[in-house]
Amino acid sequence: MQHPLLKAAGVPASFARNVPEGSRMAKLFIGMDGWALAEPEISASLKQGLGLLQAGVGQTLETKVSPEGLTSWMDVFRELQGAEIWATHGAWIEREQPAFGPDIAARFAWAASVAGQDHSWAQSQRDDITARLRHLLGEDGCLVIPTVPGPAPLRGGDLRQLELNRSGAMMLSCIAGLAGLPQVTLPVAGPGGLPLGLSVIGGHGQDLRLLSWVRRLWQ
């Protein structure tokens, strides 16, 4: 029978059968700048889950994920993402003129404005970020951060707060995205039963090791 965690994550049963049972993580890195983005109540709830993960490693270390700051990494991610989005969807948008919500329309307009520009600086930054994180984690290390800064925002919420939530979420989600690393999000109950996520990022190519380690601990 497929493990519930893998089933919930949408992992095919044929893939799950190949997960090595003996895999483990030697080091767990707590990304302190990532945790600093979480709201205090949220951080307290997530740390209960963090304790379960710490029990399954030989060593826990605190680290600053981004020497330049996660805002800088988010800017690199946004630039490259915007260029790729417009390259993929720009012709269709210009042809069909679809109706988007104000915030989505603004982001597509920004993507159009950066299309065709020189993105070599952002690409170079991505290469540096990739090298740093892959060296840090190696084959048997993992990085633990909140998945997003807080619970899902309420429908019809303040636009400024929505943008703050979105920026915080992108600062956290761009880490694995920029470096091409596997990431698993684990469910955690927050204040009032609100669903939260605790993210574990593994080393490059260590997808199976990460899944195996998480499924043995998170039951």
What does this structure look like?
The structure is a single chain. This protein is an alpha/beta fold and 219 residues long. Helices cover 54% and strands 16% of the residues. The protein contains 9 helices and 5 strands, in the order H-H-E-H-H-E-H-H-H-E-H-E-E-H. It has helices spanning 4-8, 13-16, 32-35, 40-54, 70-96, 102-114, 120-137, 159-179, 207-217, and strands at 25-31, 57-63, 141-146, 183-189, 195-202. It has a 5-stranded mixed beta sheet with strand order 2-1-3-5-4. Helix 5 (70-96) crosses helix 6, helix 5 packs across helix 7 (120-137) and helix 5 packs across helix 8. The radius of gyration is 19 Å and the shape is globular.
Layout of secondary structure:
Layout: H1 4-8, H2 13-16, E1 25-31, H3 32-35, H4 40-54, E2 57-63, H5 70-96, H6 102-114, H7 120-137, E3 141-146, H8 159-179, E4 183-189, E5 195-202, H9 207-217
Parallel strand pairs: 1-2, 1-3
Antiparallel strand pairs: 3-5, 4-5
Helix pairs in contact: 5-6, 5-7, 5-8
Distance linking N and C termini = 15 Å
How many individual β-strands?
Answer: 5
Shape: globular
How many helices in DSSP terms?
Answer: 9
Low-confidence stretches: 1-19
Mean pLDDT: 86
Question: Strand order across the biggest sheet?
Answer: 2-1-3-5-4
Classification by helices and strands = alpha/beta
Give the oligomer, counting copies of the same chain as homo and different chains as hetero.
Answer: single chain
